[in-house]
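TA notes. Do not distribute before section.
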Amino acid sequence: MSTTPETVTPGQQTGVLHVRRLGLSSYEPVWRAMQAFTDARDENQVDELWLVQHPPVFTQGQAGKAEHVLAPGSIPVIQVDRGGQVTYHGPGQIVAYPLVDIRRKRIGVREFVHRIEAAILDVLAGYGVKGERIPGAPGIYVDGEKIASLGLRVRRGSTFHGLAFNIDMDLEPFQRINPCGYSGLRVTRLSRFAPVNFDEAEDRLVESLAGQLGYSSVETIEDRRS
């Protein structure tokens, strides 16, 4: 995957969000590409949103504790540089990585997280599902069960890593960990509550994130792979 950012000239509108759809892609190459993208960007870089599904993988955040990984079995565990504890990614889950200059947008980290959560709540509401926040536990819950997780990193005023939204996936691997560091935390998926098409849910999330983050337009760009 190429990590060279596209730029805009000074004075040009920067209200566009570039959306890059990566399909089913292994976790580590995408993570390394996010790091490289963030390190290469400057104040004129167009913000991007990367959408991906990962093959089964557990990721452990910077402050992650080994005791929260109970029985990973054959699923790899990768130590990464985002916030938060251990979580699971697998097919049927929307993983969205907003690569956003929040300094340019004048959005603090807490407000950025709040807006991402609001976008997920909007999508759930569109399916007739009532989601909620739980104080002190970032992410979105339905009837006390976690349906979406957040884990971010900010470097030089720009974000990477992002959110994982359970759409129609196998939830069994979550039983092999303490999700997000909480023993006994139950997780759920959107397909339990409403008929859902994965691609449609992804499109709804893009629209909601773009609105919450204040972009004037969204453009899908070609996924460049080396």
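Switch to the second chain here.
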Amino acid sequence: MNASHNQEIKNFIKEHSNLFWYTPEDKKEQISIELLLETILNYGDQESVKSLFELLGVNKASEVFNIQISNERNNYFAPVKNFFQLYFNRHAQGNFKH
């Protein structure tokens, strides 16, 4: 999904580059939406989550999140997973549960 990164998402990744410390600098703009969402929800602050939702849209974030958590193994911290399940159930249009 990274081929469609617009300049706003690239700028967002640059602004939060420290959260992707394990990714080489020249590869950061190529990270997937899935990794971007997972990292920001797990490690970002309230403002970074809000900004990401404005860029992606809450519905798209919810769709990606619910696909990710439908896998038995995922990288979300349990409290983060629980919070955003509740959040998306309340704030996202449509029901993307899998």
